[in-house]
Write a structure and sequence with these properties.
Helix content is 84%, strand content 0%. α5 packs across α6, α8 packs parallel to α9 and α9 packs antiparallel against α10. It has ten helices and no strands. The protein is mostly helical and 250 residues long. It is elongated, with a radius of gyration of 24 Å. The longest helix has 38 residues.
Length: 250
């Protein structure tokens, strides 16, 4: 009993120990950042210290600038991601269930998956011009193939016994997909959705830096570049990192 209690105490203390180590690490990182900014190793106007970045963050949120930029960027991301989710689910089911689609369309999607999503930006600008449609297209192409391959992998790994049992019970077509295949494939589908979200986020940031609108995170980054405002550059980058971490944790 004593050994069990000791084990429980140690297990319970682990989150606090990890939190303490993380806190100490980031505090040390801030101190190192502040020291480097004032050490003379870098020109003062070419680098921002943590206090400047903190003031910029506070001012940006107080004025509502960053809230608007976040909302605009997230709206673009969600619209593109939902479109890629719908198309990706359909393509993944088709490729996973049809051998001919796998041999033809599947090989094409696998090849396109290896293409960096930023490569779609020039096509988007040529096809749609400087517009919101171009943004949506880049996000869709960034997320679509990861989602498709995730769904395909889940469909292919569905145990044949489940399919046989479902067919014996009369499940066919859409009913079989909804009641058996999708639930069994859910772990792989979720993995593909998560990877697709990451690629969509990166694609959108690249697109926003090319098609610049002030009311977006990419626009705020470019504005910091034009004004040589290093505090704003770092502040917006921290916001982007924070959003990425939050979506990973959800």
């Amino acid at each position: 009993m004593a050994a069990i209690n000791t084990s429980k105490k140690r297990t319970g203390s682990l989150p606090w120990a990890a939190f303490s180590r993380q806190s100490a690490f980031y505090i040390a990182l801030l101190v190192l950042w502040y020291w480097y900014a004032h050490s003379g190793l870098v020109v003062s106007y070419a680098f921002a210290d943590p206090l400047d970045v903190g003031h910029t963050l506070v001012d940006g949120f107080r004025s509502g600038t960053y809230e608007i930029a976040i909302l605009v960027t997230m709206r673009r991301l969600i619209i593109g991601y939902v479109i890629s989710l719908i198309i990706g689910l359909l393509l993944g089911l088709l490729i996973g269930r049809n051998r001919y689609a796998k041999e033809t369309l599947g090989s094409l999607i696998l090849g396109l998956q290896a293409l960096p999503s930023v490569c779609w930006v020039p096509f988007a600008l040529l096809w749609f011009g400087l517009s919101e449609n171009a943004m949506t297209f880049v996000v869709v192409m960034g997320a679509l193939f990861s989602i498709t391959l995730g769904v395909e992998a889940g469909v292919k790994t569905t145990p044949p016994l489940y399919l046989k049992a479902a067919r014996n019970m009369g499940a066919r077509g859409v009913d079989l997909i909804i009641r058996v295949i999708l639930p069994a494939a859910l772990p792989s589908i979720l993995s593909g959705l998560k990877q697709g979200w990451t690629f969509a986020w990166r694609s959108l940031m690249a697109a926003e830096l090319i098609y610049i609108t002030a009311q977006s995170l990419g626009g705020q980054l470019d504005m910091g570049r034009e004004l040589s405002d290093y505090a704003q550059l770092i502040a917006v980058m921290l916001i982007i990192i924070a959003i990425g971490i939050l979506t990973e944790l959800i």
